[in-house]
Amino acid sequence: MRVAVVGAGWAGLAAAVRATQAGHDVTVFETAGMPGGRARSDDDSDAATDNGQHILLGGYARTLALMREVGVDVERALLRVPLSVTYADGGGFALSRSGPRLLAAAGALAGARGFGIVDKLSAVAMSLAWRLRGFRCPPSMTVDELLRHAPTARVHRRLIEPLCVAALNTPSAEASAEVFLAVMRDSLFGARDASDLLLPQRPLAQLLPLPALAWLRARGADVRLRTRVDALERVEHRWRVGSDDLFDEAILATPAPEAARLTQTLAPAWSATAAALAHEPIVTIALTAPKRPWPAAMLALHSDDTSAPAQFAFKLGEQPADVDRVTLVVSAAGRWLQRGSDAVAAAAVLQYRQAFAIRDDEAVDVASVRADKRATFRCTAGVVRPAMAILPGLRAAADHVAGPYPATLESAVMAGETAAAALGG
Ligand SMILES: Cc1cc2nc3c(=O)[nH]c(=O)nc-3n(C[C@H](O)[C@H](O)[C@H](O)COP(=O)(O)OP(=O)(O)OC[C@H]3O[C@@H](n4cnc5c(N)ncnc54)[C@H](O)[C@@H]3O)c2cc1C
């Protein structure tokens, strides 16, 4: 079949690779000059800047398999470390890779630094209760409601909130407990290495987008960069995509607002569901700071709702001899961005200074501030996500499509692969 894929983010690339492998004649349309969508780099060099810090998990089985398929040396491209929520002062918890998962999680909680015995017991009781309930809860329940009777305020603030915001990009007061529990089940309490953090050692473009582009072109797929699809039209049983090309089937791998626009007259109900999704920003701040000891490559920061916006700090890649090159991440940043991105950056820098005891006469220089206003959809309790099937021969494949997980690279790849597998069905 002639298949059109609209969008060359991780979902579109996954769909295109799997459709090509299945023997289809694939054309990819991409507005930007670089593939990768929200997980892209500015250019194809080793020094390229990414559109925000990304981390992968050991449980991203489909993404890791796809990366290998297109020739990426996953072990070199990603630094694998056991899951930890470590603070600059060494507090927090680290998960051991050995032993049954529930015991490892209980052991990590019991050994967590900076927590009292009551905190630890409450955290262990909470995870046992999740397990006993099969990691299930009503779809309308928020993470805060899930935790109402369980852990202490410190466990909530210092362990659950950072995990929730990192995974769902939504504050725990509104975040879907159902999706949060699915993430916990399959990462923290899943297969032995599923909870490992995989920290990129290369620009994002080299993790999948550019190798997938080369793989597709080498196999005859037509990848058209700088080519925006303005409209979709049904022509008998086929699809006109863009100017005058006709395709047997099409996969819409664009963000939800664009998928809603393209389907507005073709499938009004589907389009309305996609258009109704709210989005949540992420702010990424790159800075240089005086050298300090770092207990781990990724650190949690004490964050709050009033003056401390950043949840995590990263020190990755080759470092200069004289300064630390650091990235600060503010997830669920909607509540902060009302003050403007410069104010968010200033507050995050102050937070960093306090965490690492940096004196006033020592310089912290901000290199860049990126505010991605539509980083992910808001994964709130009861959120209704659009289905993959739109019309015969037309499917959506992206991180917002209905599924068990929040908006992640793995959700995007899963959606792309599932849409490709359904071609002709
Ligand atoms: C700052 C930031 C940090 C993140 N951190 C993480 C993380 O740590 N871990 C994680 O797993 N996920 C993270 N995410 C989420 C992850 O990046 C997304 O879930 C994933 O990239 C979505 O992929 P996608 O293919 O579904 O959509 P997109 O990446 O949005 O791809 C859609 C593509 O469609 C193209 N397009 C749109 N309209 C058209 C059109 N009309 N014609 C042609 N092309 C079009 C766009 O240009 C884009 O390339 C983060 C996101 C951001 C923004």
UniProtKB/TrEMBL annotation:
Residues annotated as transmembrane: none
Enzyme class, first EC level, given as a word: oxidoreductase
GO molecular function: oxidoreductase activity
EC number(s) reported in the record: 1.17.8.1
InterPro entries for the chain: Amino_oxidase (IPR002937), FAD/NAD-bd_sf (IPR036188), SQase_HpnE (IPR017830), Zeta_carotene_desat/Oxidored (IPR050464)
One Pfam assignment: Amino_oxidase
Keyword set includes RNA-binding: no
Keywords per UniProt: Oxidoreductase
All copies of domain Amine oxidase, residue ranges: 11-423
Protein known as: Hydroxysqualene dehydroxylase HpnE
Protein's organism: Scleromatobacter humisilvae
